[in-house]
Inverse folding.
């Protein structure tokens, strides 16, 4: 039986941390193993109250959640523990809404991998990440 993806995301949003990030699932493709999120800007995301820029920890969290959810969609399962998370910060993300696109790279019996790209409000690619997850039953 296929999991209802939108219902699954609503369940994930019950996590206090996921709720704080306010990530909105904007699209998904079960066959391709892809998901996209829009993330509305919050002052609490800033790295400094007096300077523009979103804190790298916020971007890292978005990457981890988006990659895990892409795998959940692709593999028709609830979620997976993170084994490793690698992030390259390409430029400072400008204040404003963010967009994250995640895609499944490998659906493995014991280990799976997904990649994520994050774009800032100016449409610039700001960070890329790869998550590795334990997918053994």
């Amino acid at each position: 039986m296929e999991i209802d993806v939108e219902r699954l995301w609503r369940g994930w949003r019950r996590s206090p941390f996921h709720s704080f990030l306010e990530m909105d699932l904007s699209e998904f493709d079960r066959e391709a193993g892809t998901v996209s999120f829009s993330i509305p800007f919050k002052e609490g995301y800033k790295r400094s109250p007096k300077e523009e820029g979103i804190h790298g920890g916020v971007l890292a969290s978005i990457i981890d959640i988006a990659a895990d959810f892409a795998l959940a969609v692709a593999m028709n399962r609830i979620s997976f523990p993170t084994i490793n998370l690698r992030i390259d910060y390409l430029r400072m993300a400008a204040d404003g809404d963010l967009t994250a696109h995640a895609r499944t790279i490998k659906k493995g019996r014991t280990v799976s991998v997904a990649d994520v790209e994050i774009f800032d409000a100016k449409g610039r690619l700001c960070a890329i990440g790869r998550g590795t997850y334990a997918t053994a039953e």
In short: Residues 23 and 39 are 5 Å apart (CA to CA). The longest strand covers residues 125-134.
